[in-house]
Amino acid sequence: MAAYVRRFPSCPLIPMFVSGEVVREEESADGATTVTERRCTVDVDAPRLLKRIAGVDYLYFTQKNSLDRRQRTLHIEAYNQTFSSRVLVTEHCSYTVHPENEEWTCFEQSASLDMKSFFGFESTAEKIAMKQYASSISKGKEIVEYYLKELEGEGITHVPRWLPPIAATPPPPGGRKENATLSDTLPGPPDDKLDADYIRRYLGELTPLQESCLIRLRQWLQDTHKGKIPKDQHALRFLRSRDFNLEKAHEALRHTLTWRKQYQIDPLLDSWHRPQLLHDYYTGGWHHQDNDGRPLYILRLGQMDTKGLVRALGEETLLRHVLSINEEGLRRCEENTNIFGRPISCWTCLVDLEGLSMRHLWRPGVKALLRFIELVEAHYPETLGRLLILRAPRVFPVLWTLVSPFIDENTRRKFLIYAGNDYQGPGVLQAYISPNIIPDFLGGECQCEIPEGGVVPKSLYRTAEEMETEEARMWTDTIYKSASVLKGAPHEVLIEIIEPSSVITWDFDVCKGDVVFNIYHSRRTPQTPPHREAQGAHTLSHPHTPPGACSNNTQMIDRSWVLGQDYSRVETALTCREGESIQGSHVTRWPGFYILQWRFHGAGGAGGAAACSGSSLARVDDMLASLQGAPHRCRILYYTEVLQSQDFRGSMSSLESSHSGFSQLSSATATSRQSQTSSTLSR
């Protein structure tokens, strides 16, 4: 703050900022807060003609700074006075202390521009405003650092923190040490930084800002994904791929966690069995490691019959294989980290294009390749350390033109392309791969066990109907179901309990919107829709619904039922926010029907008082309004299971059943959001 105030009344680093005149300043009685209002004069770099048409040489803004020394925050609001009836410019900035490390300062800035009219030059004025604002943003950090160095040059390296007036507190016996400083009375920084040895051993070099982003992302995961938190190495990949933009990394990681759960990616390495056709004709495989200790994957794409593989296996089978390769790559990175004693977070891929021709540009094959790239880019960011493309033929630029737009710019920088035999000789391929492991087909001495490929016999081709059936079974073979939760139309799952003391368990992700989760009990038989089993009913003899069964939106509680008479709530309502992952259990006391309900939670209180209403059946007007308005639609991904009491083993950090599959990316945690079974029951 001492550096910030030096930019007034004028700043040589911002030529457009002419002056800042204080028009009002107020300070609280204890000196904790100060509000300063300035009238700022700005000389915009605009064409002379436009200034003459507008009739002004300078623009005037009002800036209001609210400094709170107790909370250690500075909030800045600014808006334009000039042309305020034609143009509305608002800006909000804040300086705060980082919640994880009090030695760091957080800065946030946002602005808006509303161009109503400007003498017919609206587009020009908007471009000038955006250019000027972007220029100002780029210098923000530079300006603060400039004045910090100016303070250091004057010998000021420490500014004591504000404390309430001493008069309010009597001095301690014996008085205070004469040479004691104000900072001597303050607690030290919080002890929740990442350990330096841990960073160096498992994560690699991180700046303080990058470490801060990782801590904040990890905190979010601990708050919302109980019991299955991705390891720091994996969270760090998403941060790096988004240039440590915390919000973007948070959103991408949330989608990946939901995707992994929905498509059962976690147990893929154990459950996926490669068809014999892949063993015989897929020309790729793992082969030792490169000079940096990264796992090395070799793909002889030019020798692969891509059309034959797609026609014989189908796109989805090949996609499963590609995903298993990436899962294996993550596992090998962890192994190499332990072997070499330094962080290995990505792998190297060597692609041999000898034999590549126009037959590889078969349109369905290229389409499948683009889909694979899109999925890997989204869910396995920053796993490719280097891509060596060797013996690129003349047709390669055509394939590159089709594929490159779908590859992230940061990933494209890792591509090294060599035509013909340019890869041979010292300092080229040997700079990345040790000579003793270069495969024999590239002129090395190492025997490589990767298949040589060949043309897939057409007799093995499958019909479109056969592949469609197989692909549908493959992607719907999951224990998780998805459902929509609409405003006025909750989603409800019916569970029939025959034996008391059975345990109902649940695991769900809130993919979109906010919901309220309730559990009800009734001795009456609900009026269930057709195909009851496919919509989530459970009995102990049928512990779970068929794999892939998906109910979109179902209501079980009859409109005429009255809460407290026909059915009762057996758990306290739980509000669940978008992005949260919830696991829990309930030990049943009576036989009968239990209803798990997810209800829309919005500003109108639909998730609170409405949850207690006697009817949950949607009215026609509510349904129509819900379908027309996307903000009134939530989406959940859920799994429920009934266990007999002797099969239930306590902690719900896992569902503790043979069907549970939590992330291989996760590190174990001891906490979970488990419902309390001692809830007050109404009958």
UniProtKB/TrEMBL annotation:
Residues 162-189, 524-548 are annotated as: Disordered. Residues 1-156 form the PRELI/MSF1 domain. Residues 274-450 form the CRAL-TRIO domain. Residues 476-642 form the GOLD domain. One of its GO terms (molecular function) is RIG-I binding. One of its GO terms (cellular component) is cytosol. It comes from the Eukaryota. PANTHER family: SEC14 RELATED PROTEIN, SEC14-LIKE PROTEIN 1. This is SEC14-like protein 1 isoform X2.
